[in-house]
Amino acid sequence: MSNLEEIAKLSGFSKATVSRVLNKSRHVSPETREKVLRVIREMDYVPNRNAVSLSKGKTLQIGMITADISEIILPFMTSFVEAAAEHGFQTIIYTSNLDKQRELQAFEDLKQKRVDGLLIITSVNDLSVISAYGKYGPIVSWQRMERPDIPSVAMDQYDGYALAVQHLLSCGVTRIANAFGRPESLNTQRRIQAYEDLMAAHGLEVRRDWYFKSAYHLTDGQNVVHRMLGLGEEPQAIICANDYVAAGVLSEARRLGWDVPNELRIVSFDNMQIASTLGLTSVQNPIRNQAYNAFALLSPGLLKQPLPLKPLEFGLVVRETT
Amino acid sequence: MSNLEEIAKLSGFSKATVSRVLNKSRHVSPETREKVLRVIREMDYVPNRNAVSLSKGKTLQIGMITADISEIILPFMTSFVEAAAEHGFQTIIYTSNLDKQRELQAFEDLKQKRVDGLLIITSVNDLSVISAYGKYGPIVSWQRMERPDIPSVAMDQYDGYALAVQHLLSCGVTRIANAFGRPESLNTQRRIQAYEDLMAAHGLEVRRDWYFKSAYHLTDGQNVVHRMLGLGEEPQAIICANDYVAAGVLSEARRLGWDVPNELRIVSFDNMQIASTLGLTSVQNPIRNQAYNAFALLSPGLLKQPLPLKPLEFGLVVRETT
DNA sequence: CTGAAAGCGCTAACAA
DNA sequence: TTGTTAGCGCTTTCAG
Fold it and tell me: Which InterPro entries does the UniProt entry name for this protein (chains A, B) (predicted)?
């Protein structure tokens, strides 16, 4: 492998000049630049990025932290990788498998300057531990953080859930069940709040006995259907934590002869591919914008020119299930 | 940020000794080690990885090349990230979006020593281009490569498909349709070969008019059902390129009143979560072992002690659809 | 516009 | 066992 010095010798200039050519500095005469470039091409030379990183103190790499790579986070992940790539940054995956120690490696890598910044998709370490690493580089989170020093692109799920509830009410439905996700999460709490506020505002009964929790997957949705059947009085509609849960509800309900949407309306969250495939009415997060914003929130620490944020708004895509 | 030199000064030893402590060299007296470690802890020191990488000429990073991050490759991806992490290697994602130039960045990064090795999941560049980078570091591929210089962990799909066909024949079925994936791919060709060989061997008719191609997603499976209905004579069974296609076939067939498995048996490939959820009989690739082997194939260029390969065998998981 | 030289922070061969 | 001293390959003042 050839290096800077070799190119310098062969072209008859100094390392400094070659470096300037490489970095597109304006302080190089066109002829010099041309000569140097010719040698570079001839030698098939490329700069060693470790040397560049060491010298510059930047790696143009961003770490992405998650428990695992699941379908749920896929759209966000790919959008982020995309957004980062647009600005010349690469993305390294850190999967923790819920192991605190393993996750910590990502933060250590920020400290060790292996990455210039960190995106937390999901994290298992304590917030105090995490924010202690803030001084080593920018950190941003997807999930809402209870600490103000870690910015987040999370959206207030209240607004999205309100959209879903409003829609059902406007369909004339009054008995609404809910299949929530992680019970302790702030997102779930905001969703509950939205449901209860709107029901109360319309003078309708809040059915806490129709809260199903920890629903994440297709199978969870199927189970929910069976539990609804044993309820005596049956709900007219259900709002599901995500499209997979809703898919489970839909397939199982239909299999048991339930008429969707006439006897049971279904609204889900995320509006992923499967929602359009199965005809699910779904609340859409602006995931691409969220991912873009995640990078934008990191950008002050990465680029000379920070990126502006894009607006984040929920949308409702109405399909056959309502 | 403190550095080696600072630790050396504070502990009263040389940089070399501190470096030895860091690298767990045996040629350091216990007392010295203890003293140095104390200072390291006190100063909250960690070595700069760029400097280490530059000096050692290794980064402990592996690039993973794919067109996009889709559900199809997820299990393989996560398994690989896992396998690499077990040996201290991190994984960088390179998504090409089918853009040759963008994909080339990954290969340039191998040349620039940003990564020590490369895993190709899917690639859009010409093989001749790719193998030209072989001299810069180890490259391994998931998909089968037509060139011997790029090793691959792809399995001969002939064997897996044979398993599926055999199973259907043993169910007493003789009229079998097939929903294949990418028509030009070697995998598809091997699958076709297996089907045709086995049918011929049993003196049964090979139904090329029942080949459906380019089936990848749930929706493709649904379409296949409709096309099967217009066939005049109907197949008794269908083998699908993957679980999603099979899921589409299953749901649409049932929706149209087809009795699965009695009137239509379905076998799919990959045996992913959805297969068990929906009760699909599915052929299982040993994905974890494939991912492990991918790293093992890279390992001669990465580790002093190359890793042994694990055996790769297809398996058939029989469920309700047959 | 160009060059010399001092870093960036760590490793490793060679001495002692 | 420990220290000295070149590197690793590039960037960036500072002079000229």
Answer: HTH_LacI (IPR000843), Lambda_DNA-bd_dom_sf (IPR010982), Peripla_BP/Lac1_sug-bd_dom (IPR001761), Peripla_BP_I (IPR028082)
B17 vs A286: CA distance, rounded Å: 54
CA distance A155 to A148: 15
Tell me the per-residue pLDDT of B47-92, one tens digit each, with 9 for 90 and over: 999 999 999 999 999 999 998 887 778 889 989 999 999 999 999 8
The answer on B255 and B175 residing in a single domain is yes
pLDDT at B26: 86
| CATH of residue B11 | 1.10.260.40
Q: pLDDT tens digits, residue range A97-135?
A: 889 998 999 999 999 999 999 999 999 999 999 999 999
Q: Which nucleotide is nearest to B14 (CA to C1')?
A: D3
Determine, yes or no, domain membership for B134: yes
| pLDDT interval class at B117 (50, 70, 90) | very high
Q: A126 CA to chain B: closest CA distance, Å?
A: 19
Domain containing residue B15: 4-47
**Which of B4, B86, B93 to mutate against chain A (most A CBs within 10 Å)?**
B93
Q: Is the CB of A22 under 7 A from strand D?
A: yes
What is the domain-level CATH number for residue A144? 3.40.50.2300
Q: For B218, which of A49, A112, A277 is closest by C-beta distance?
A: A277
For residue A219, the model assigns a pLDDT of: 85
Same domain, residue pair B8 and B81: no
Residues of A in contact with B69 (CB under 8 A): 69, 74, 77-78, 81
Helix (H) or strand (E) holding A109: helix A100-111
Residues B147 and B169 in one domain: no
β-strand partners of B94: B65
Dist. CA A118–CA A129, nearest whole Å: 14
Q: Are residues B252 and B302 in the same domain?
A: no
Q: Which two tokens mark B37? A: 């470690």
Task: With beta carbons under 8 A apart, name residues in chain B contacting A91.
Answer: 92-93
- Residue A236 within a domain: yes
A268 lies in a domain? Answer: yes
- Which residues in chain A show pLDDT less than 50? none
Q: Count of domains in chain B?
A: 3
- The C1' atom of D11 and the CA atom of A143 lie apart, in whole Å, by 38
Same domain (yes/no): A110, A221 = no
Contacts of B128 (CB under 8 A, 6+ apart): none
Q: In this structure, what are the phi and psi dihedrals at residue A108, rounded to the nearest 5 degrees? A: -65, -35
- Is the CA virtual torsion A239, A241, A243, A244 positive or negative? negative
At a CB cut-off of 8 Å and minimum separation 6, what does A199 contact? A165, A176, A205, A206
- Please give the model's pTM, rounded to 2 decimal places: 0.81
